[in-house]
Amino acid sequence: MRKMRHVFVFIANDISRLRRKWLTLPLIFISPLIFIGLLLWIMSSVFMPDEPEDIEIGLVNLDDSEPASMIVSALADSAEVAEGLEINEMTQAEAEEMIGDNTLVSYILFPEKFTDKMMRGESSQLEVVGNPDMQLESYVISGMIDTVVRHIRNSQANILTINHYAETLGMSDEEREALIFQEFVNQFIQVLSSDTLMDEHEISQNISAGAMYFIVNGLFILMTVWLYMLHIALMRDTDHQLKERIKLAGGTYFVQGAARSITTSVIASLFSILLMLVILKLSAADLPVENIGRLAVLMILHIIITSILLIISGWLIRSFKISMTVQLFVILLVILFAGSIIPRIYFPVYLDPVFDYMYSYQTLFWMEELLLNGRFIIETEVLLITLAVLFVVFLAAALYKERRFL
């Protein structure tokens, strides 16, 4: 209880010191808000992704048979073949003209007697003519073309097997051809409806969410900067005699650190949550009350952890000016490895474990999941483990400082 009384005394002292700085205190909150707001507005204007255009592919059918015509029509009419692809049937002359105008990425050519050769077990190859000025787009559709080719090979093997047993059973040529045709069409339609015509590997990158992505990242950076500036505002260079007087008054390192952490965390959390509510109101975001509570939990945990980290890093170095520089470096690392300035996807792969166990990244990740992706859960294991570890380090560092220097 005595320790807690001392903590509350130093909390009151820190609040009193902040009240005496009432002229500069608003600048602590307003100046970062203006600067980060302008910076994010510029970044959103420059890096906002444009609306993606579909990649257009042509289908040219030189085979007049019914199976080939059905394949081409099915491909052209299937709007859900793969997201971002537009497939149109056209003549070879039209396809060549569109490639010359750079309005067509490539076209798939079904050669003459394509189905006849396939029915007889002969080699049947599709021809793909690409646009030399659109090599990247041509590479993207290669997955779809490979799937079509694999289907043709599998279908050809099945058709030859069915044809062999149909002949063995003495089936007439008309019935056998009808059976083979029906089997081929069934397999091809199955491939189109299986949603596997194109292998898709998706990497989540929330920057495509638009302006809200920059707002969420700005909120994260802002609450971290606010905490740092509050911490700096309460720091002061004390001589040895003043430290002795503070110690006699019960002001141990633990008491001062706990009071500093509580004061800065409470003020930063209140302003950050208030700003979050204002943003949700202005953006008309339909966010459930439960998710607002989850956001508040994430923000408070992040602020408390960062506050303790700042205090510990300040204790490591006796020089007042150097300790301020070290704390600034710590804050920059916290923001950098959160992925708020440079998204995680642009970092080397070997840094993935750092992000997985970085509390600031987990905070921002789940803030984005709640606000941008509509999630209704959060995982706080990394944050709680980090908080527990830092609290133990905080206690150990406080005991060491008291025995070593005072």
TrEMBL record:
Its main location: membrane. It is found in: Membrane. It holds the Pfam family ABC2_membrane_3. It is a multi-pass membrane protein. One of its GO terms (molecular function) is ABC-type transporter activity. The chain crosses the membrane at residues 21-43, 211-232, 253-280, 292-316, 328-347, 376-400. Keywords: Membrane, Transmembrane, Transmembrane helix. The keyword 4Fe-4S does not apply. It comes from the Bacteria. Residues 24-400 form the ABC-2 type transporter transmembrane domain. GO terms for cellular component: membrane. PANTHER family: PHAGE INFECTION PROTEIN (PTHR43077:SF5), TRANSPORT PERMEASE YVFS-RELATED (PTHR43077). This is ABC-2 type transport system permease protein. The lineage of its organism: Bacteria, Bacillati, Bacillota, Bacilli, Bacillales.
